[in-house]
Amino acid sequence: MSKKQHPEDDKSKLVPHTPGNGEGGGDDVVHSIAIDGLYESWFLDYASYVILERAVPRIEDGFKPVQRRIMHSLKEMDDGRFNKVANVIGNTMQFHPHGDASIGEAIVNIGQKDLLIETQGNWGDVRTGDSAAAPRYIEARLSKFALDVVYNPQTTEWQLSYDGRKKEPVTLPVKFPLLLAQGVEGIAVGLSTKILPHNFVELIKASIDVLKGRNPKIFPDFPTGGIADFNEYNQGLRGGKIKVRARIEILDKKSLVIRDIPFGTTTTSLMESIVKASEKGQIKIKQVIDNTAANVEIQLHLQPTQSPEVALEALYAFTDCEISISPNACVIIEDKPHFMGVNEILKYNTQQTLELLRQELEIRKAELMEKILFSSLEKIFIENRIYRNIEEAESWEEVLSTIDKGLKPHKKKFYREITTDDIVKLTEIRIKRISRYDSFKADEMLRGLEKELKETEHNLKNLTDYAIAYFQRLLEKYGKGRERRTEIKSFQSVTAVEVIANNQKLYVNRADGFVGYSLKKDEYITDCSELDDVIVIRKDGKAKVSRIQEKVFMGKDILYVGIFKKGDDRMVYNVIYADGRGGKSFAKRFTIPGVTRDKEYDLTQGNANSKILYISANPNGEAETVEVKLSQSSTARKKVFEYDFTELEVKNRSSKGNIITPYPVRKVDFLKAGSSTLSKLMLWYDTEAGRLNKDRRGKYLGKFEPEDQLIAFSRTGTYKITGYDLTNRYEPEKTLRVEKFNPKQVITAVYVDGDTKLHMVKRFLIETSTLDKEFSFVPENGSRLIAVTSSEEPVIELEFIKSKDKGKVTKKVKLEGLVEVKGWKAQGGRLSEFRVTKVALIEEEEAAPEESDSDTESNEVTDADQSPKKKEQPGPPPQRPSQSRSQSQNASQNQSPWSSERGEQASLFGQPAKPQQSSQSQQQKSQPNLFGQPEKQQQSQSPNLFQEPNQSQASQAADQKSESSDQENGAQKAVDDDGNDDTILGAGQTVEW
User: Fold this and answer.
1) What is the mean pLDDT of the segment spanning 446-465?
2) Position with higher pLDDT, 991 vs 104
């Protein structure tokens, strides 16, 4: 607070203002006050009041002022029975004139957290957003937990209420991290606070860890459940962020069900966001049904064209099924706001609990010592019949003096001096008690008090152990049913463009140059979404990318229109264009992985009058063969010839290309399709996110061609064959294994039969081919899958109990020879005659190729800002025949590529290869390999330009082998229990056990 003088206190500095004519008369003087003075004094006073007395909780008990007064009022009214909330509101207003509505709302807020208040009646539902009934209809009382943890008048600091008639606590002596357990949110003036609720059980365990000197990590737990990513939680400080998702399950191909909702949302608001996204066409939902009762259940029925996996991701991208929460832990310490992390708050509350327990023990120790002292005095007073000596006393002072003389021989036994008050208490003992005094019972009581005193003193000396035992008692007494509800998980970001439903149709007017989804009378191109980008390539060689709109001008004479995907380096454009200067025609292959929207890019050399003669877009880098027809007026001997795009290397969009003819071209026609010249697509499976990726996250799955498929095995014993689209999602909780599908590989599975509870093993071939349909290969009686593999020589580590005397035995067992390969519906055989306790699959995961290895098989070249440049490694230079010159993409000579028909092979690296032998077929002569050199020369003479310089030709050949060949020729090793002997297991061999 500013200590400056109040603006009104120093009137000598005020400027008098006298009203002029027409502004009023008289001698009144108006004093002007500077605005900065108003701000520094009055506004800061108001802000401080709101911060300290309304919005921000104190760290000691975790309550805002109104909550603290409610808890004090409930304690004052507590008689074990329920009280009407309306009565609680009225009683609370004795301590401070809060509004009745605000007090009622605060009571309901505490009651809905189900920790401090036991409720009766309709208290609303935080999941559905239903409000509580009127205060006169609902009732409340303190919970047993609150009575045990929150209150202790002896350790409470008190203050007078606003009118001085009542006493209220400054803070309540809470012996628990209540602030973190309940959470709090408040908006003050100039700052706000938002502390998220944490799990009751985890907080107790974390407090025990703090007392043991550890540094635990705690994360929020929401009453609504759901799934949360706390990677950016930052201990609840400013700048942190939490992503919370609804728990969504796929019921079947046509429906989803939401089981949990994100914290801070309700079923009503969630459904409204889903309906809104459906109306916008972002997700195709046919019907939303709310079946919420005791548990949340919202069913979503999808339209027939909507994939459930894509719909699930779209829910996270476009609706409140995923929200972001920004915590901001701010608390009041010594009447000042402080920003603290949740770990600091936990340590503060734990140390406060330790201190409160110490105070309680010291108070109890003092009480016990006083009880022992008075019981001993009472015993001496009665057994020594001192009360008879006061019969002849004539005054009160003489009575006290007589008793004091009788106690004098025993005073040395006591820990303190005997006071007049002690003697007065002796005189107040009734004759009935003296007459029935039992010395034995008195001794028993004294021994009990002394025993309790020793325990108290021991607890004080071992205060930390006592506090740990206190928290453990809380956990045992109140922890049941308070397990974590929110699942902790790492999320993979959902890209809206990838999951949005196609809610528009793309049209083009090629002549006029317009593109959009409102041109419904023009040429239809494809379905699209409002978030997609469209790429246009015109006849003049210009390319442009723009956001899809209702109608946008992209330039006249459009040759190609398509959906542009940023970063797609497998979309290859094959182009033949005529240069405007010189008349030569060039062919080029290129990718466009990234551009700037609404900027034109020239795909030719930029000369005037250049034009594109032929263009094709190939999603997987296919290279077709075209027929080039020259002008009839040209002097070329051969006016029609074929050109194969496989002769070209894929480069970037600014490359010049290869000259295919110096003569004018009349027409270029498509002749026949070709295969992809790109390397196979390498994929990984992220087991935490349940998603496929190309970013080397998770388990390596292999290299994929367009016709390849994946197979996913669930923990319930089903399999499903799917494609390898990156939008696929496999639920991590239900999925046991995902791998590349090979129908010829034998599947080995170990499962527990639901009826017999025995471990079974079976081997079978996948006989189905239906995509995206689950097939169960274990009995549907509650059986669960333990391990599954497609390894040719599967080995498991088996732990079983052979006998009670020997205990558990661990062996490595080869499964290949245990059972025969049968149909996928066969039950299989028993794994072991003994009781199996553990089964673990032993296998070596296939190592993913290094970056350099993948480059050796790829012709893809992207822009310098998109991928690293390929470096040519040193090696023997290719042979250079004197009569042949290469067709470099940057060359300007007039020789045409059909020179390969005369025995020459064009090299894509700017140097011709050695002429082919005459024994080669004509197809071999005219068809180059991916590196621009004939197959024979590559094996014998030409080095691999992308391989490390020290690798031998043998290693090059090994790199080109298929994965299936590696699996057929490889041998799997098993290690004995001692870990020393590596023995190769032969076919059918089983380790004895």
Assistant:
1) 93
2) 104
Give the pTM: 0.69
Find the farthest-apart pair of alpha carbons in the chain and give their distance in angstroms, rounded: 155
Domains plus CATH for the chain?
63-149 (3.90.199.10), 241-323 (3.30.1360.40), 352-478 (1.10.268), 496-672 (2.120.10.90), 717-842 (no CATH), 871-945 (no CATH)
Which helix (H) or strand (E) segment holds residue 369: the answer is helix 342-383
What's the mean per-residue pLDDT of the chain?
80
The DSSP line for 403-459 is: HHHHHGGGGGGSSSPPPHHHHHHHHT--HHHHHT--HHHHHHHHHHHHHHHHHHHHH
Residue 52, classified by CB atoms within 10 Å of its CB into exposed (0-12), middle (13-18) or buried (19+), is: middle
Distance, in Å, from the CA atom of 555 to the CA atom of 855, rounded to the nearest integer, reads 37
pLDDT of residue 31: 64
Catalytic residues: 137
Over residues 196-253, the pLDDT tens digits come to 999 999 999 999 999 999 999 999 999 999 999 999 999 999 999 999 999 999 888 8
Residue 625: partners with Cβ closer than 8 Å, 6 or more residues away: 642, 643, 644, 645, 671, 672, 674
- Four-CA torsion 746, 750, 752, 756, nearest 10 degrees: 70
pLDDT tens track for 944-954: 323 333 433 43
Q: Which token pair is 518? A: 């409102």
∠ Cα 117 122 123 (to 5°): 45
Cβ pair 546, 619 in contact under 8 A: no
The shares of helix, strand and coil residues in the chain, as percent rounded to the nearest 5, are: 25, 25, 45
pLDDT value of position 943: 34
CA angle, 429 as apex, 423 and 432 as ends, to 5°? 160
CB atoms within 10 A of CB 665: 20
pLDDT of residue 27: 52
